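Risk register update: the risk that structure generation would not scale has been downgraded. Supporting records follow, first protein first.
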Amino acid sequence: MIFILLLIYCTSLGTGFEMKSIFCSISDSCDCDFKPDIKGLEWDLYKNLYGQHMAQDIVSEAVVNFIQNENPDRPLVLSLHGASGTGKSLVSSMIGRHIYGTAMGSPYIHQFVPTLHFPSADRVKQYRSDLKHWVERNLTACARSIFIFDEMEKMPPGVIDVLEPHLGPFHVLFQTNYRKAIYIFISTVGQEVINRVALESRQAGRDREDILPEELEESIADAVYNNKNSGFYHSRIITEKLITRFVPFLPLLRRHVERCAQRELCQRGECQRADVASSVGGAMTYTPNDSQYFSSTGCKLVPAKVNLFL
C-alpha cells in the first residue's frame, strides 16, 4: 500500500529525479549511478600514484571493504595529509572516477573549497547551517554521495563539526540512510610530522616503503586537533574518533618527480622524451638544503616544467 501511494505521488511530480530522491530517502538499496570499478581503482592507485605506498594500501583497502559491504555501520571517512603536490587531490579524483565513472562530473560528487564556500571566519554559524542542509539534501537524493573537502587548513574552525552526527554509526537521520556516504578531507596540516619521519628514515638508511601508517596516524590526529589553522581544531570529529583512516602522503624524491613528468609527457603523446623528464627532475627545488632529498613542491609544478623543456 505504501509503495502504491509513493508511486502515485511520484507520478504526480512528473520527474524521474524527484521519484528517485523520494525512493532513496526511505530505501537502503538506492545506488543512484553507483557503478564501482574496484579493480580499476586498485590498478590506478598502483600505476599512477608515485611514492605513496601507505596511501595506496590504506585507500585501496578502505574503499574496497566499504563498497563491498552492503550494510556498513558508518560512512567511510578518509583524511588525506601531506605536502602540496604529493597526490592527495589525485587520489580523491581516482575514487570519484572509479565509483561514478567520472572524476568530478557526477551530480553525486560534491567538492567544497573553503576559500570559495567558507571564506569568512565571522560567518561560521551561517556556514554550519548551509553545510548541514546541503549535505542532508544531497544524501536524500543519493545515499551513496561523495563529499570532498579540500584545503582543510583554510576551513574556519567549527564549521565542519556540524557533520558530526552524519559521520557516526547512525542508521537513519531525518529518514535518510547516511551510512553509505564517503567523506574525504584533504589537508597540508600534519606535513611537518610526515616529512620529519621520512627524513629521519632516510638518514637512518631505512627504506621509505618500511614506514608504517601506525607510526604517523596518531601524530597526524594530534596535529590537526591542536593546529589553530586546521578546520579540525579542537573538533569533536577527532576526539570521537569519527575519521575512519588518516592517510599520510610522503614527500617525493626526484625519481618520483621524473615519473610524474613521464606521465605528463605520455598524455601529450611524447612518451619517448625521457630527456625532458630528466630535465624536469633536475629543475625542481629539493629539501633540506644540505641533502636535497625531497621535492619542495612535489609534482605540482611538473606540467609547467614540461612546457618549459618540451
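Supporting record for the second protein:
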Amino acid sequence: MDLAGVLLALLLVLVLIVSLLSNLLVLLCFVYSTEIRKQVAGVFLVNLSFCNLLLTVLNMPFTLLGILRSQQPLGGCVCKAVGFLETFLTSNTMLSMAALSIDKWIAVVFPLSYTSKMRYKDAVILMGYSWLHSLTFPLVSLFYSWVDYSNVYASCTLHLKEETERRRFTVFTIVFHSTSFMLSLVILCFTYLKVLKVARFHCKRIDIITMQTLVLLVDIHPSVKQRCLNEQKRRRQRATKKISIFIGSFVICFGPYIITRLIELLPFVTINYYWGVISKCLTYSKAASDPFVYSLLRQQYKKVLINIVNRILKRDLYPSSGYNSSLDTENDYCLHRTN
C-alpha cells in the first residue's frame, strides 16, 4: 500500500471513531432525558443517529478492509448484504435530515399551530415513509443483481457488472439519486430559507428596539453601547451561519459522491480510484458530523451530558448517599427558535 492509501485508511479510522462515539452520545441523551424524548424532533434525531450508527458499525469497517487489502474483503452474500444496507441507510439519513428541516420550518414559521401540525403520530408517519422509500431501491437493486464490490469505491455498493444492463441501471441510478439526494436537498433549501427569512424579520424588529433604546439612554457608557451594537451584528449572522451549516454540510458531504456516481454512468468515463474512495469517505463523514450539527452542540444536549457526567462522578464519590440527580433538562424550543 502506498502513502495515499495509508492516509485514506487513517482518515476513515478517524471518521469511524468520531461517528461511533458521537452517535452513541446522542442516543444516550435521548434515553436519559425525558424532555428530549417529549420533543417530536427527537424521533427524527434518533432515527438519524441510529442509521448513522449502523452505517458506522456495518459499512465503514468493510470499506476500511477494502482499502487495506485492495480487493474484495467479503464473500458474495455478505457483500450483497453490506451493499444493501449502505444503499438503505444512506437514503434513510438523507430523508431524516429533510424531515428535521420540515419540523424546524413548522416550528418557526407556524409556532402557534406547531403542536397540531407536527405531532408524534405525524413524525412516526414521516419516518415510516422514509423507511419504505429507502427500502424500495436496495430491494430493486438486489433483484437485478446490481449490488457488488466496486474497486473504485473499495466498498460493496451499487455496481453494474454486465454492459447489457447499462440502460436500465442508468435509469435506476438517476431515479434513486433524484428521489433521495435531490428531493432532500430541495426540501432543505426550501424549509431553511423560509426559516432564515423569519429569523431575519425578528432580528430586524429587535434591532429597531435596540437602536431606540440606545437613543433614549443618552448617558450610557460608550463601551456598553458598542457591546450592544456588536451583539446586534452577531445576532444577524447567527441564523445565516446555522442555515449555511445545515445545507452546506449536506452538499459538501454527499454532493461529490452523487455527482461521481452520475458521471460514472457514461460508458467512456473512468473514475480515479483515489477520488472514488475520497468521495466515499466524505459520505461517511456526514455520519460523524450530524450529531454535532443537529444535537450535541445545542445547549439542551450539553446540559444532559453534563448532568450524566455529574451523576457518574457523584455516584462514585458518594455511593451511600441518597442523592439522585435529575437528567431532565428544560425544553429549549423557544431558545432554539430565537437563535
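The chain has one domain: 3-305. On this basis the risk owner (M.S.) recommends closing the item.
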